[in-house]
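User: Assemble these into one structure.

Assistant: Restating your components, then the assembled model:
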Amino acid sequence: MADPARPLRADARRKREAIVEAAKDVLAEWGADVPLDHVAKRAGVGIATLYRHFPTREELIAGVYLSEIDPLCDTLDDLLAAMPADRALTTWMRRFVRHVGSKPCMPLAVKSIIAPDGPAVVRPAHDRLLTTVTHLVRTGERAGVFREGVVPEDLLMAMTGFCLASDRTDLPDQGDRVVLMLVDGMRPREV
Amino acid sequence: MADPARPLRADARRKREAIVEAAKDVLAEWGADVPLDHVAKRAGVGIATLYRHFPTREELIAGVYLSEIDPLCDTLDDLLAAMPADRALTTWMRRFVRHVGSKPCMPLAVKSIIAPDGPAVVRPAHDRLLTTVTHLVRTGERAGVFREGVVPEDLLMAMTGFCLASDRTDLPDQGDRVVLMLVDGMRPREV
DNA sequence: TGCCAAGTGGAGGAATCCTCCATATTTTAA
DNA sequence: TTAAAATATGGAGGATTCCTCCACTTGGCA
């Protein structure tokens, strides 16, 4: 790990993936506070190896759910092709909230991912997410269905926060309603 | 602690208050993960006493910030007397978000407080908060500035979530914007 | 093939958790 | 007022978890 840009050695990459895979199971089963040697054990890896790849619990949790971001963002084009921007944003945000809220540790992971100063590993996911929301918002602005000046980060923060706070109580109805409020709150105000 | 309804013995009440006072300082200084014996030490109390009064960390943290809820809710009448319901709700929500977001562990405490199945100690604060928001929402509904059927719990969840996710980054501007979106999202839709 | 940078495992000291129970204090009632 | 009963206390200590350190192993390159 001298040069952060150098690709991992083949065995190291394999172990890293094993850790992520194991952590996915163990986090789902035990929650975010699971002892990290459970993860190491299940991955068939020494505890030091786990710590080398993921120096903090936060980075491990973020690492586990990183791969869930892209598929979510991939739906963007289809949505925009199929419906007007306001409905597209609503639909996308509802999917986001449902999906993020559906796994016990995922809101925590997404919190790291959207944080402006999160760990370096989450950077690509951070950018992807922000780009996606920004695109939806700007498209709606240009179409006149949203007022100008809405800050995409605000939406990400509000959605992620909702998932953090609700801990899967009442979902998905409550999530749907909150998303609706946020999106309706972006429409132009008839003065 | 046999009968939960029986009032505490005088010395026990004094120690409980000392614990809350100490925890307030220590949590602010060290964050939510502070070792609990630091709290006990600062309160001049044995660790067992702390555990007897607050069996879980969650209950301790909630207990510390319980007393901040009432003052916030006390402003309700003045607000409603001074301005229309939509502005009153906006103002109140902004105060809430600013205040809850201003202390490192308070969002966590409020998460317990608003949870539908939180610990028993938080019940009065829970009810007070819900009553306050409900009153603001219903007043606006009757005045026709909000559409019907807005669920007050949704607002509490969204505000608390925002505080949890944002960790005091960007506050207070971002908080103000998110509150505005939520409140505007409650207005009647001109179809 | 042999070298070395990169990667590994797990022992073990330090920190923290949380229960248990002998002791101390308050309250009650006679 | 006093003594018994009810309540509350402190901190020792076993169990758990954290996380670093370093002697050893392995993959990649010349």
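The two ends of chain A are 58 Å apart (CA to CA).
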